[in-house]
Amino acid sequence: MKREETIPVQLGSVIIGGTHPVSVEAMGRTNPASVDACLAEILSVMAVGADVFRVAVPDEEALDGLLEVKKRSPLPLVADIHFCPEMAVRAALQGVEGIRVNPGTLLNQEKYSQLIDILRDQNLVLRLGANTGSLPREHREKDRVEGLFESISDALELPEKKGFSQIILSAKSTEVEETIAIYDRLSRSFPYPLHVGLTEAGEGQEGIVKSSIALGTILRQGIGNNIRVSLTSRDPVDETQVANYILRAVGLHQKGIEVISCPTCARRKGDVVLFVQKVKKAIAHFDRSVSCKVAVMGCEVNGPGEAREADLGLAFGPSTAVLFEHGKVVRTVSQENAWVEFMNRLYDQTQKS
Ligand code: SF4
């Protein structure tokens, strides 16, 4: 897949854009005023593949907390600050790696100008993020894609006049079609990396499907440098995992352990659902830099054949489990011993990768 090349932008330890891999942003749920809780969230999303952590900063107390979090955070932070440019300026002065500015809540051009100067002097990043829910007043009556585009174009004028280019753009809609259209237009119009997301996608399966179609389509067009999935969920681990599954499904993510499993049917000879749940729980603690594909199948009829590509597979037989590697049967064990045998071999596979 050919990727659209953009200016590379250095956000702390992560480079977004250029020829660098698409990275994943997670957004915290806790107020950073609760410093330890916020840091625990950062560690939890990092464990499932987040590269960047965005934090809403609603007030001064939250900003004080964020500055403490920054001292200990292993991930670069993006401070999401609305309506209060003074706080954005303060966050930048304290070296928070990225400041997210929404053109619809950017009320003070003088402070915006000051913010850009600080970001430039400190080598920090401006993330300009428009949203259909908060378009600037002058663009609200327009077609929503046009409104998003115009609000980004307007907000870019000042930094471009100042020669500042460490900018990441995003323009999010709640609609799949609009999201695909606006990112296509941004990609054709500006040289900056794009943070891609569908806003307010919803809860559970519905949100996952909408996000997957929108982000998958955009990424398959070679567009996008950083993604976030926005799900109605108490735990940002959920959306981080979905973001990584999307990257893997479109062929942009080769790391980690991919689990293929059959849906099960009346032919199944073992509890595939339970086995897969146990595998997923166990691999959550594996080193994410390994690359490996495993398969769990409910019967021997289609097992090795369906998962020929897998490094390691297991197909249940009548009271047995057949283990196969790269499509070839390597051992048959009782179902009681299947778990231990499978995990031992999985460990060996990850050592090889
Ligand atoms: S692998 Fe076997 S149990 Fe699973 S869906 Fe296919 S036929 Fe059914």
Brief account:
The protein has 11 helices and 15 strands.
- Give the rounded overall mean pLDDT: 91
> What's the level 1 CATH class of the largest domain?
Alpha Beta
Task: Write down the domain tally.
Answer: 2
- Corresponding CATH superfamily of the largest domain: Dihydropteroate synthase-like
What portion of residues belong to β-strands? Answer: 15-25%
Spatial separation of the terminal alpha carbons: 24 Å
Bound molecules: iron/sulfur cluster
Helical fraction: 40-55%
The CATH topology of the largest domain corresponds to TIM Barrel
Describe the strand arrangement of the main beta sheet, using strand numbers: 8-7-6-5-4-3-10-9
Q: Note the main sheet.
A: 8 strands, parallel
What form results from the Cα inertia axes? Answer: elongated
Number of strands: 15
Query: Structural class of the secondary elements?
Result: alpha/beta
Q: Which CATH architecture of the largest domain?
A: Alpha-Beta Barrel
N-to-C SSE series? EEEHEHEHEHEHEHEHEHEHEHEEEH
- Please report the number of helical segments: 11
Q: Which blocks of ≥5 consecutive residues have pLDDT under 50?
A: none
Question: What Rg do the Cα atoms give?
Answer: 23 Å
